Amino acid sequence: MRVTIADVARAAGVSKSTVSRVLNAKGEVDPGTADRVRGIIARLGYVPSSRAVGLARGSTRTVGMLAPSLTWPWMSEVLQGAVDAVETAGYGLLLFTCHRGRESMVQFAEQVSARAFDGLLVVEPEDEIDAVVPMRRAGLPVVLVDDRARHLSFPSVSTTNDLGGELAARHLLALGRRAPVVITGPPHFGCVSERLAGFVRALDGHGVEHDPRRTVEGDFTERSGEEAVEKFLADGLDVDAVFAHNDLSAAGALRALRAAGRRVPEDVAVIGFDDIPLATHTTPPLTTVRQPLRAIGEAAANLLLAHIGGDPPTHDPVVLPTELVVRASAPHP
Amino acid sequence: MRVTIADVARAAGVSKSTVSRVLNAKGEVDPGTADRVRGIIARLGYVPSSRAVGLARGSTRTVGMLAPSLTWPWMSEVLQGAVDAVETAGYGLLLFTCHRGRESMVQFAEQVSARAFDGLLVVEPEDEIDAVVPMRRAGLPVVLVDDRARHLSFPSVSTTNDLGGELAARHLLALGRRAPVVITGPPHFGCVSERLAGFVRALDGHGVEHDPRRTVEGDFTERSGEEAVEKFLADGLDVDAVFAHNDLSAAGALRALRAAGRRVPEDVAVIGFDDIPLATHTTPPLTTVRQPLRAIGEAAANLLLAHIGGDPPTHDPVVLPTELVVRASAPHP
DNA sequence: CTGAAAGCGCTTACAG
DNA sequence: CTGAAAGCGCTTACAG
Fold first, then answer.
1. Domain containing B189: what range?
2. Taking the complete model, does pTM exceed 0.85, yes or no?
3. Is residue A55 part of a domain?
4. Is the pLDDT assigned to residue A230 strictly greater than 80?
5. Protein footprint on strand D: which nucleotides are under 7 Å from a CB?
């Protein structure tokens, strides 16, 4: 059998209470006794059972993380950041995805009700947010990685999407481009409207008007980037630049431009968003607005940990900076 | 306060034992009583506390997964496969990485001792395997995603690496290439020696001898692929094909070949290994030996779950098939 | 078919 | 500074 607190107590000739006290550095313990107990603990290789501690203390030292899917190229970095922060705090990370649809959410909800973790990190929820709202109301600490979060009054972390759009526009303007088109993501994402707003505002500031027909709604896939470019060209628009709301659709745009015989960046400059590993491998390599993905995961986890630790939830989102990474698809002026 | 089994028992006018029986479908319960209890459970929205169940039952319905890092491009798929399988079985997945070095492993070991999960999935361990061996000996069910596992007598899942090497060689031979070079990964990986062996054997079978100088050791990074090609060229070897042991180093090889003015595939055909998303985006797109990453994660999780469920551990590795995916870097003959 | 009681392995007032 | 006892919320023999 594994060694329990009772074994330690017996071997040390003290009560379980005392062992517990030295374990948790709680209450006064005679220094001598404490040392002796610590010795026994080390000798026996005793480690408290997390199940028992959890039950007695009413907490699990575990956080949950709910993500739509792990296969989006930016997820790994966010997840790694979260895992690092959570582990550093001595917590565990329980990972869930909504990858199998409705059934996933049902099982996830069970885990929540079963109090399997002390707090929850939710990444870019879509419909799942409807399930998360009541969990929060029921007292579960929740932090969102999402740009719509402020409207939902959840603590959250996001990035300067607005500024990112502005950076893209300024760069294209500096390159002398006056006929840019935009490929957005699904419009219900907060990041989408922000990126667009920043972009259009910067154009405006330079006297370049942005005709709404020069914006097409994509869905963040490569295919949607291709289709958008095909549509722009079929519509007969003159196009000397593309601002895509993520790198995947920018890669699709590059592909479609090449297929149409347009040279990048000579004829058309292209800027993406995210800076995923792929961005260095497209032809030509992609200029993009970098999001600090790792830092986003870390910040979200730390925010949640603080919340669990008793800090009152902040409703102001933690906003991390985006920055322009210049590569060949839209080179330096 | 949250509703407990005692609340349900009281409301139903039965004992906690009976509620527990209907909950777990264990032992005989009068159908009428069972129905009544189920009604109460639904009405009260009762869900058993996973902590309490775990303590009483001695298990957690949680599995651990230990990965070196999440940022290798193939990890996401393996992880997604594992999460899907684990969730489907009603288990949770506790994720750990060795990303922060020694400290990570110490904390991880604590979690193991604390019995935070019922079984462990380990992906491509390097030194960490030394820490895992005693855990297994202490009774923890462990499954490895690793090609060396058979030597360690761990249950494991791997792929037909040997055949993959053979497929690559046959394809290059069919393209008329007789002067291939190989960029391997670190030699302590089982997959590396297998891929090389299969490749060399197929060449041999066609009367093409493989000079050892035509193999260079890489480390699976893009940079190492570049350096390997630079070395081959500097050595004055004639090269009409490259077989890289993963897609990242193949991408590096493509880059170095272009820099050296060699045309791909006309002058040099290139084949990678893995089929990560990047493979479709290199210039030209990469022919590669596909590994069924998602299926690997699923198979490993299911093997572990069966093991936890009491099935005796199988020491024969579960071997999944690799297949050649032909793209422009080494087109159809 | 059902209940009372002990036990899982801790923590935490409460006394002393 | 320390221990006995109750409690966290379940499961599981043991009786009946």
1. 161-292
2. yes
3. no
4. yes
5. 1-5, 7-13
